[in-house]
Amino acid sequence: MQKHRCLIFFFSLTICILACCPFYVGAQSPSKHIEGYVVDTAGVHLKGVTIRMTSKTDTLVVISSERGFYKFPQVQGEDIRISYSLIGHQLVYKNVPLFGNTSFILMPNVVMIPQPSLIEHVNIVKTIPVVYLNDTIQYNMDAFSFRKNALLEEALKQLPGIQVSRDGSVYAHGRLISSVQVDGKKFFGGDVLTATRNLPADFIQKVQVIDFYGDMGEERGIKNEEPEKILNFVLREDRKRISFGQATAGIGTSERFIGSIGANRFNDGQEFSIVGSINNTNTSLFSFGSPSGAGERERSLFDAVDFVDPTDGLNNIKSLGFNFSDNLAERTSFNASYSFTRKENVTKGISRLQSNYIGNSISNEETYETQTQDNFHRLTAEFKHRFKNNDMLEVKPVFSYNRVGVDNIRERLVENIRITNDGYYRDSSYNSSPNMDLDVLYAKSFRKPGRKLLGHVALNFNNHDKEEDVRDTYRTIDERKTDPVISRFEQELFIRQKNGTNGVKANFSYVEPFLEHSLLEVTYNYELTDMSAMRLVEDRLQSRGTGFPHFVDSLNVNYNYRFHSSRAGLNYQYNPDKTFRANIGFAVQPLTLSGYLPREDMHYEYSNVNLVPTAGFKWRFSEEMDWSVDYVGKNNQPNFMHIIPVRDNSNSQNIVVGNPELKAEFSNRIATTLRKFVSSRGQYFETNFAYNFVLNKIVSDKKATGRSTIQETTFKNTSGYYDLKWYFLFNTPVFNESLQLDIVGNTDYYNNLSYVEDKQNTTRQFIYSQSLQLRYSWSDYFESAFNTNYMLNHARYTWPSVNKITAHSLLLSAGTKGYLGDYVTIGGEMSQRVNAGYESDFMNNSPTIINAYMEFSFNKNRLLMLRLQGFDLLDKNKDMGTYSEYIGNDMYEARNNRLGRYFMVTLNMRLQKYPKK
């Protein structure tokens, strides 16, 4: 019995030891699965990074994949350390926390910082100026020479393929730059002008032009949307910890003045900047424009080769702003910016609008003056957190408030064949627009590489309140009878208007690796927009007569409108290697538009289902050549002016009647782009062709009221609109790198549709532009640029009879700058423009613009600069604000005043402080 007890005890002890041993060993050293991603300072995944892992028992080496991914399966031992190395970048070392008994470890994204390497006995004789990557074109600033203390805006003008217009807009390879980053973080909310006019050029090591697919697109890994162009400025290593600033003060003739101040602190990822400006030289530190500000219209790339000031009217601008960004923790970043701009604008001009009908042509000639006071506030923030499991949360609130006062006086002469109206029109208004937008993005990561679950919600709350006084007075002479009939018209209205637009957009995406080299995405998008419009119109003449407020019921509005859309789809991306990428998708989009008029108890509704195929292909034939083809379809809903079912005659000569039964437009765009780089020669070529056609295009429907001078406009849907757009650009050195040639060409063709007297009118417009620029630099002594641009604008109308107009514009310009030693700079600019073929004589002007300046630098580091300048020496810029538009049966041409000749002296001081070593 005792023997059996001993056997039982021994057997039980053996079982316990065998059972406990694995747990004991596992507690000491469980195997680990470690993975993560490697990116550069712009967040672009890095391929070819050598990653070395060491522990007490293991040493493993792997290379990062095309998407910057790496993994170490079955890692044994403790004290795990990982090193990351890539030529041209700083070494990075990471210690791996064990997280208790966790067997799976997802490392935070590792950022590789560029760093030049010194190799003994090797002399670098040339820095590659431009590096062409898949979605990024990178300029190495060491390969270019710039004037000492030059601002970034001046340096960008010397980079091949980049143009900077007179108003500060930046174009890269023919496309407008929409946002700016510094070391991968937004600077002043991404404002382009603030960065280029405040950052010194010698602070920047690299300028990266990035095709950005949005935060959600970058996280998804599927690139099937049209990207926007953004700039990322990579700071030099010795400029990442520095305090710097500048102050400028100037005074000139014609009561011109300018003053600005800026202070900046960069401290290894923490950035703080504050800038302010006051001037009446049409200069601003901020490019955030006001939607209702006078003198603003869309700029074109071809303004870049002219030496005129492109701003209409005379401005007095005050601006202030600050920016702050910091890494709150290892995985958390935050940035915020605030800007305020007050702009007082006075614009004077003349215009001519001719509308052709059968047997009747109405011409409207106006002389006007518009005074605007615009106060614009904008506050932005961005919070981004990367969790330990690599999930990502991003929150972006944006708040803006705009208050605008406008006083508009127009003297006008309206004529048809036998009737003449001679009088004036005046409206004074106050507008306030508080707006709030909130974007929230959450990206869920999984152990399986490439698998993602993403959710994006965007909320917007926009309101617009307006109070407006309108006075319309004119005398009518009717000569249709033997004895002319003379009558007078007078109208005074007070209009209170309140519009609101609240909306929500929600996007959900699940991405799953599918087979080898493939991703499959299931998407669902939801959009809901509620709009409301309330308007009360008081007839002041009637009110004064009765002593009580008299409201015009036919002009009052109480209207609610809702746009509702949901979209479900599948996207498939095939990316076998870096040479080919294909995207194919299909979505179903049911949508509903509904409107309601409570007063009339009328309800309008329109429903439709859009089938939305998408496709995109990109071939990378070599490291220096690629070709892409893309198709995108999207929905465009009508706006307030289109749908409000009220006969608005607050402008008695131009009555507008909305159509609440309008359908939403559906546009389809097919585009193809070919890019070719020749690094050995420093050449770059790009060409793009795009075809866009729109179903249910919203167009105007105009008619004349009887045979009077009054016109009435409403809106309807039609099909048949399309446009074709082609451009190309070519950059190359000529003979040597000191002489650079840029050639840009654009061709646009529009098949525009409209209705006149309920009959369809087709306007076929052909616009061709060809520009050439030669830039020459001779060491540190001399640099110059020569520009030429030709533009043809040809329009052909089919109603009321075949008619056409052909306008030409030729520009020749040259600018030169010379350096007399280290402290004196002289420069001059001249441009000659020739216009011909326009209907109005004031459009066919040929102005000559001449600017000249001299700069004197002081002290050892040349941080003080005195500038003497003369702007528009021949006083011709004041007549350059011309504008033309040919749509439907209308030919519109206008000329606004601009800033004329003045002379100014300015003093600029810059300060820099480096930390103690």
Automatic annotation (TrEMBL):
Keywords tagged on the record: Receptor, Signal
Outer membrane protein beta-barrel domain: residues covered: 445-791
Top-level lineage group: Bacteria
Signal sequence bounds: 1-27
SUPFAM superfamilies, per database record: Carboxypeptidase regulatory domain-like, Porins
Name recorded for this polypeptide: Outer membrane receptor proteins, mostly Fe transport
